[in-house]
Amino acid sequence: IAVKYIHNMERPVLPGVKNIVAVASGKGGVGKSTVAVNLAVALAKSGARVGLIDADIFGPSIPKMFGSEDSRPAGVKIDGRDMIVPLEKYGVKFLSIGFFVDSDSAVIWRGPMASNALKQLIMDANWGELDYMLIDLPPGTSDIHLTLVQTLPVTGAVIVTTPQDVALADVVRGASMFRSKSIDVPVLGLVENMAWFTPAELPDNKYYIFGKDGGKMLAEKLGLKLLGQIPIVQSIREGGDQGVPIAANADSVNGMAFADVAKSVM
Ligand code: ADP
Prior knowledge:
Blueprint (H helix, E strand, L loop, with lengths): L16 E9 L6 H14 L4 E5 L7 H4 L9 E4 L2 E4 L2 E3 L2 E5 L6 H4 L4 H13 L6 E7 L6 H9 L4 E6 L3 H15 L7 E11 L16 H9 L3 E7 L1 H9 L10 H13 L1
Parallel strand pairs: 1-7, 1-8, 2-6, 2-7, 8-9, 9-10
Antiparallel strand pairs: 3-4, 5-6
Helix pairs in contact: 1-9, 4-5
């Protein structure tokens, strides 16, 4: 994807970063962070230089998904400025708002506080040269979304949904937010997560637990690209809980599903 500087800025905020991709969802629990983490790892495995910012103030889950809950990023002085050094796992540099906020008080943060924290993660960290910076946004539409597009030239948004009706209605709202005049961020496409389930003992069967092809049909209706359909797989959930993203596993079929999503984003 070409770099698109949407806003006229006097100086590029992150001159070393080629593409900034927001990962969004209409509602929580659809697998947005799971997709963000695995997409980041898959992009890194394909040779890209990748950064990931966890901006999901209400449920920062990336430290856990990278097995780094007990780590804290270090600081460094660059040209007299205090900078945060992103952590690095599976070839991905990352920072989480969760490293800087106590999770019990996060929910009572007012919008501006959350927005300022996001700005710091972006501008006061030593990201260096990146081909892709992914930003895992909070679900829905919030001040954080506005801050992001006002602070950074966002290349595009990836929207994650399940095939379920209620998730889909929220996707329409999310997509129209990105496409609105004031935000104007191209939607790169939709990822349909939890698309089906296949039990190990019935490998030829697909059970469409949340409905069949909901994301695919919505993508067609909204004129969006379907970036991939990811099944419900126990090892995807376990990978998240154990801090080893499935995309890091070279021989996993389900890891390959994320590699395909990465290819359609690149
Ligand atoms: P969100 O960021 O949208 O709130 P998460 O990525 O945290 O959602 O996912 C919610 C839960 O669902 C997590 O426990 C995660 O491991 C699990 N999950 C997400 N996608 C899948 C999948 N394709 N198969 C199995 N479990 C999944």
